[in-house]
Amino acid sequence: MLKWRMWVMLTAAFCFFLTGCGKTAVFHFPFALSDVTGITVYHNAASGKTEKKAVTKKEDIDSLYSLFEGLTLSEKPVQTGAGTGMTAFRFCLADGTDYELIYCPIAVKSGRLNIPSEETDYFTSADIGASWAHLDYEAIAAEESELPNICAES
Asked: E-assigned strands of the chain?
């Protein structure tokens, strides 16, 4: 009986260990904060209506950059299509190029962070979607042609 209990406990511990062992990564931008001239933030709610805000104030650019820089991400499988909506960030750089990050929520305060330039998806428990509500800029309708690739199935 004791051996059976010990075997069950070891098996349970091993399973717990395996499920918690997703690789982690720390996100770093491939450019400096000083290279960012502006950020366009897109938000698509469950209604399907997509709006954008043009972020131009230095303190808001700094805040959004800081939201991602050093963010801990997990390389664990994430069920696609589980959440609704999307918040995407297009960082406009001084050299005329753009860098995009796309956040798709899965549950409250967690979701997928897609990095199109790296063709990768990560899981994050950061509340990235809430940043839309904290940006005090006019929200205007976004044209479909300007939208990032919104949370494509991977």
From this structure: 23-26, 36-44, 50-55, 72-75, 86-93, 98-107, 110-115, 120-124, 140-141
Whether the Cβ atoms of residue 42 and residue 103 lie closer than 8 Å to each other: no
Share the mean pLDDT of the chain.
Answer: 80
Q: Residue 62: name the closest of 113, 148, 154, 135 by CA.
A: 135
Strands 86-93 and 23-26: unpaired
Average pLDDT over residues 79-95: 79
| Backbone conformation region of residue 112, classed left if phi is above 0, alpha if psi is from -120 to 50, else beta | beta
Is the pLDDT at 5 greater than 50, yes or no?
no
Phi, psi of 66 (to 5 degrees): -65, -30
- Tokens in use for 37? 């001239």
Query: What is the three-class DSSP state of 43?
Result: strand
Q: Where are the alpha helices (DSSP H) in 20-95?
A: 58-68
Over residues 28-52, mean pLDDT: 91
**Nearest in space to 29 (alpha carbons), one of 58, 73, 70, 90:** 70
